[in-house]
Amino acid sequence: MAAAETPVETFKRALAHAARALAEQAELEVRFGGDGPKLSSGVLTLPHPPRDPAAPVGTAANPVTVGGNMTPPPTEAKAYPVCGKGVQDGCVNPGEAKKRMRRPG
Fold first, then answer.
1. Which of the residues 14, 53, 61, 101 has the least number of beta carbons within 10 Å of its own beta carbon?
2. Distance between CA 19 and CA 23 in Å, rounded?
3. Are 7 and 53 in contact (CB under 8 A)?
4. What is the per-residue pLDDT across 80-91, written as a single tens digit (0 to 9) for each?
């Protein structure tokens, strides 16, 4: 007797069928890997689905994916001037500036 299919495997199988139907190509090969998403020579490579879809987004079990399972780069903490009459580009709104001052840090 075959082992029971996990929810992730069921999702992968359903997604592969849906991709073939949308592409109107019954022979489309659907793979899951870290180098997706991409389509090349009749092979559609998609990123792996989360291990635990019920886990909160951004956790280790359900990471946020950016362009093929890459994590986004950390944001730089820059000191922007407060917007005013003479400064309107590359500045922070006065209300946001007050919030930033209150943050411990």
1. 101
2. 6
3. yes
4. 788 888 888 888
pLDDT tens digits for range 16-63: 999 999 999 999 999 988 776 888 888 999 888 877 777 777 777 776
Output the CA torsion sign for 91, 94, 98, 103. Answer: negative
What are the tokens at 94? Answer: 């006065």
User: Taking the complete model, does pTM exceed 0.70, yes or no?
Assistant: no
Please count the other Cβ atoms lying within 10 Å of the Cβ belonging to residue 58.
Answer: 9
Give which of 96, 51, 57 is closest to 78, Cα–Cα: 96
- Which stretches of the chain are assigned E, i.e. beta strand? 29-32, 38-40, 43-46
Q: Which two three-digit tokens encode residue 77?
A: 């903490």
Do residues 68 and 37 lie in contact, with contact meaning Cβ atoms separated by under 8 Å? yes
Tokens of 66: 């950016």
Tell me: cis bond preceding 37? Omega within 30 of 0 counts: yes
